[in-house]
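Q: Sequence in, structure out?
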Amino acid sequence: MLRNMFPRTNSKRMALLLLLMAALSAGGNSLDARGTTSKPTIYRSAPNFSRMDLNHKQLNLADYRGKVVLLNFWATWCAPCLVEMPRFVAWQQEYGGRGLQVIGISMDDDAQPVRTAYRKYNLNYPVVMGDEKIGEMYGGIFGLPVTFLIDSKGKIRFQYQGAADLSNIQNQIKTLLPQK
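A: Exactly. Output:
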């Protein structure tokens, strides 16, 4: 059927196209450099990292043990990322007193547009600059946004790839937070 749709496509290109389509339809798993799905990160300990945030304060993930952490990989050029940010600000405001900590990891190459976005969106949570190394620690970041929910014991409980259902994320945050 696809050969009829793409009559000039050779068999190698067709195989690559089919592999890509299969990977995209697999949902939730990311591809590594070899085109195979990476190991799921759910229920393992969140890898610790230490970075300077945009306000020049040292941020160490291990310091947030005891809190529920929403760890969001994003970039200023990523439209779905920018849509999520106001909700993350609201959740930090609403649930921060109950133990939620939002942390942003910008995958931009330059900090200046990140600082501009930080001010524009009135972010009330720390943002650090990310890179390939920190992305690999979290199973590889092959598209944005990618968000992890980490429980108070430091275990990754949920992972969201791409534009996620924000209501679903909010409900899962509520299940991880201590009840009022």
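Residues 39-176 form a domain with the Glutaredoxin fold (CATH 3.40.30.10).
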